[in-house]
Amino acid sequence: MGRVIRAQRKGAGGIFKSRNRTRKGPAKLRALDFAEKHGYLKGIVKDIIHDPGRGAPLAKVAFRDPYKYKKRSELFIAAEGMYTGQFLYCGKKANLQIGNILPVGQMPEGTMVCNLEEKTGDRGALARTSGNYAIIVSHNPDTGKSRVKLPSGNKKLIPSANRAMVGIVAGGGRIDKPLLKAGRAYHKYKVKRNSWPKVRGVCMNPVEHPHGGGNHQHIGKASTVNRYKSHGRKVGLIAARRTGRLRGTRVVKDE
What we know:
Blueprint: H1 6-10, H2 34-38, E1 41-49, E2 58-64, E3 71-77, E4 87-90, E5 101-103, E6 112-114, E7 134-140, E8 145-149, E9 155-159, E10 163-166, H3 182-190, E11 224-225, E12 237-238
């Protein structure tokens, strides 16, 4: 009987929970209401702030409540080119300007968008990390669906009523600069979660990891592993469709 491996220990949480004490809050679009479905609302960018553990900056946007006499503060992922004091418009009738939020079906093909809803009203799920964006490929008015190209290169069919923010996420080029030293990686992951440093399985003992042991550091068995293996064996390339280096240019089929 071997030891409980790291992947199994992560499931229980404990020391592997996310570090979220200093986070500024969930970054979401406005809750979908009548005003956004049929007209537009005007908000003002009050502040652009750093959110610990997130590569992209956040924008604090103040809206007037459409139903009560009060202000509503929202936390959006900032698009590149946003500034404090900027007026933002959310809704079906909003203009196509950086930072504005409108349904995908109202935007022309080729528009770069971010913080895109996967399901209508989920308040933003796709293309949210720094420098990322999705491209609107085509619309089908008959079915009420739109095709978008995601940051991965995949094309996805989503309802045209799904909202998105115009522009690309701010903070791009973050990974162009190498971390260079262990101290920077330490601080990067200290505020995210306990996922660094990672000890390799091949340098462990056989009791601690399926890849451990042997007189040279080698796996000693296939690195690919069945999807239905027991949890203590699921290490390496789990249910891999293919292995090896990706060669040549990727061809994305237009469906």
